[in-house]
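ok so for the tutorial part 2 we go from a plain amino acid sequence to predicted structure tokens. step 1 is just haveing the sequence, like this:
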Amino acid sequence: MPPEKGGQPAPPAAARPPPGKGRAAAVAVLHPDLGLGGAERLVVDEAAELAARGLRVVVYTAYHDPRRAFAETVGGAGGFEVRVRGGWFPRSVCGRCVALCAYVRGLLLALAIAWDSRWGGEHYGVVLVDQVAAANVALRVLAGGAHVCFYCHFPDLLLSPRGGWLKAAYRWPLDRLEEFATGLSHSLFVNSRYTLGVFHATFRALSDRGVAPAVLHPAVRLPPAGDLEPVRDDARPVFLSINRFERKKGIGLAVEALGEVHRALKGRGRARLPRLVLAGGYDERLPENVEHLQELQRLAAERGLAKCVAFAPSFSDARRAELLAECWGVLFTPQNEHFGIVPLEAMAARRPVVACNSGGPTESVADGRTGFLCDPTPAAFADAMLKLLQPGVADALGLQARRHVEERFSRRAFGAKVYSHVMRAMDAE
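step 2 — the prediction. this is what the tokens look like for a chain of 429 residues:
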């Protein structure tokens, strides 16, 4: 989402004229599952920043459990309303047809927005759609002329594992619908330059038509600098991994790397061996979450690391802050991640990051200054971890990481860009 002319962010709400006669001041945000992931963090930031600038914001979602959701989504703490619609429709059919069910749930959310906009007392000038492109179809037809903006985290058709002819037959209409529906939005955004390249390579018909999404990097809240603690060289080293408990996140790499570090330090006669905390989103409704957590526990036991690897599934915001304060560095293990909000959260908390040298982290982590970008191997990650264990290194990189995020990835700058786009869309209504 480009800044205003001259490269400056949009002025704050108080400096902008209030919505004029006939111009809607309400924004709807559509997101399928309001849990604790990076995509959900972006949606919450988006809604909170728009609300803070004086706009009425309503987030529509098919699932919201206050016990495992960001604090801003509960009780109006973020300044916006959350409405749950369409949750009665299943997420899958006997563990299958997940994509089809997600499309249906997205369409149900779009119908709810259209209903509220036409007959429910709302008038949405802008609808921000996240992840589920199929919703664009219903919104363009039924949402009363609202400007539809779609945020593409990554083409869904690339996230689905390939299979036999039956799977191919099932996916073919869904994949065609995704490209068609994506092209129906009035404006498009992607979360990184990496995703932009994938978008053009995947949606060739849209690219040939000249559809060019803007890059809008996600942002992160900045804890007050005075609340941040330096890395304590006198404490037992702790590394932290924050990821949803899904196999594609490559969390086992962190466990294997810890084993390499232990072997290296034992060879040097060092007794104080580092620990690893594996934290992240965990939903007991999802079989993969349950199975993968058990797989990681077995892996730690097999590597003789059971006493050195701790697990913290579905932690609170407060616990997240505590874990970041206790660690020496954050291990971010996904390969070809679309962007990755965790590296930003770590750097904002004055902690360096060790990440794979692919995807979004190559745009957010400054190799050698705010952390290390590595090949996705236990040996490469272990080498970076050993560097962070040297006296003063983790804290020095952490200080640079904090400044890096303040300059490039603050939520204030992100909110200004989103607000600028929304106001331009409403002006054109």
